Amino acid sequence: SSMTDPGPHLVIQNDGQHAPTITIEAALAWCQQVPGPAHPGRASSVGSARMTAVRGFARYLSGIDADTQVPPLGLMPYRTGWTPPFIYSTAQIEALLDAARTQIQHPLQSATYQTLIGLLAVSGLRIGEALKLDRGDIDWDRGVLLIRESKFGKTRLVPLHTSSTAALAGYAQVRDRLQPRSKDPSFFVSRTRKRLLYPVVHPMFRRLVTQVGIGADAPCPPRLHDLRHTFAVRTLLGWYRTGQDVQTLLPALSTYLGHREPASTYWYLSAAPELLALAAARRDNAWQVDRS
Q1: Positions in the chain whose pLDDT score sits under 50
Q2: Predicted structure pTM score
Q3: What are the catalytic residues?
Q4: Cβ distance 246 to 268 under 8 Å?
């Protein structure tokens, strides 16, 4: 949109359509015209951004032109679309680890990405939590990670299997041998002896995913964060398959993952068709027992 001054009157030019001033109807029509490929999530975000700009301009213009209509709040709300997580198979995770071992030439970088991807897969940590780990955050005797002030400002302890602790210890030996002079407290370090940063990790992970050929037909490309989703879904699947009391155990999983409340963990029940089917079957069986 643009504003021209033909004389004593204002003319609002809206994609070639001239109007004497801003009206709610014209603003809404412009916000609903989204250029480019059609996509529900994109239409919502672009339309919401346009409406924010229109409201700001209309508020300014109302001081000059009394006929200006300022669109009310909530007229074009932003609705985020739900993106189903990519659930990695065991073979796909192993392929990623193998690619990190064989396709990354620098030995420290190779060991770093093998260990980082493996830790995310077996612990369900957020990528930011893993990158924030310091060397002193690992209790080697008890096999416990200290996750300090993560999302929502929460600090928690994350126990690991002995095999995972051994893998971390093996990486620490390689890191200290290849970078003996590193003074950075970070557990995972880059080739420059500094803490790994997400803008560096993300493209490397995308490169490994592409090389392995994972998720080529998926609606959304596999993400690092999907390793966390995979961990949660696999945990729930294991509980259902072995007949565990999932409702009782769910708060423990919520605490382990660092969720603010168990309701956030319930979201995973709809993340995989198999998991949803198992939950439904458990519910139906319980209902039949109650009826009898």
Answers
A1: 1-11, 37-40, 286-292
A2: 0.69
A3: 126, 151, 225, 228, 259, 268
A4: no
